[in-house]
Design brief:
The protein is mostly helical. The chain has one domain: Up-down Bundle (Growth Hormone, Chain: A). The chain contains 17 helices and no strands. Helix 4 packs antiparallel against helix 5, helix 4 packs antiparallel against helix 7 and helix 12 runs antiparallel to helix 14. It is globular, with a radius of gyration of 20 Å. About 5% of the residues have low confidence. Its main location: membrane. One of its GO terms (molecular function) is fucose:proton symporter activity. It is a multi-pass membrane protein. One of its GO terms (cellular component) is plasma membrane.
Amino acid sequence: MSNTAKFTERKYLVVLIFVTSLFFLWGLAMTLGDTLNQHFQSVLHISKSRSAYVQLSLFGAYAVMGIPAGLFMKKFGYKNGVLLGLSLYAIGAFLFIPAANAESFTFFRFALFILACGLATLETVAHPFVASLGDQRTSDQRINFSQFFNGVGGIIAPFIGGYFILRGGQEHSNDLIAVKNLYTIIGVVIALIAVAFSFLKVPVLADPHVEIDDSYAVAGAENIERKLFQHKHFVFAAVAQFFNVCAQGGTWAYFINYGHNIMGYKSSDASYFFGVSIFMMVLGRLIGTLLMRYVWSPNKVLWIFALCNIIMCLIVAQHLGVTSFIALVMINFFFSIMFPTIFSLGLKDMGGKTQQASSFIVMGVVGGGVFPLLMGRIADHNVATAYYLPIICYLVIFAFGFSYPKLNKRSA
């Protein structure tokens, strides 16, 4: 094995490109959910705290589908796992048609739940899939690279939502036609991608988490035989991922509300600023990946960025006008590398338990449905004050990143 690990191999390039596109697709869907959150408040006349059930429907699906998706992937392989995820994604999108016709918040939540079951399946499959497309030593680089396109989808979604859903007088009307039309188009596109992916030939994959060199085989034989929850770094990664997505769900759910209620922007303009914040996330992911490759270890970048976000949340909560709004935008910059880095660190040296571990880490995404409910209780009174809560999450992430070298050493 050469001293410098390649990013990937030529035989995996087409598959890597296709699987990376999946990151874009679920980034688009997840961020559009935050636009719907604001839209439903106006159109269906619900409170901020009740609109948080949009996030619960989206992220709650991860708790339901995490383990089943992992079992399905283990039995039927990566490709069939992707096809299952895309099918559920398309079905959920098409369910927006009867939901809009019924003008029912409950029906919309059901449609979002089915759609998110597809996202959970894709996410469970895609991370270990990308990790398997090359050397384990560069798995976190590949995952961060793919997550870059997740951010691209996230950038585009608020502009799509702001233009087609929130612009003009739609936010004050009972017209859900734009929502129905948008998700119908999404459903058609996802269905076509599923058909295309069914014809893609996937090379035989040697999972880098299982295929190891002789030196590691001697040193890590006992590690591979350990039970799943005896791997301390994996357990802490699952906990950290839960709190990470708690912070994401809460921050994103009330970003547009902050721009509208605190800064006085139109909802559509606040949605565009949300798109800018997602651009900052993409930029942060690029810079963070470079830092990991040339300057610091992934876990060090993680805890430094967590500390920065604690500072950002404190500034946002102070209600300092433009300064606080800039800090709100910058939260996404420092948040950028957290999800893929926690995921990759949690899967390190898990051997044949990699797919099972991936399922449990994905289940942590349910936090994105829990935290907006808590923040919504405060946001009903003061949106700015609600941003004190994510500080708890970033403290947990800091602890994981800072203690990771010792945790992984214990696991080995």
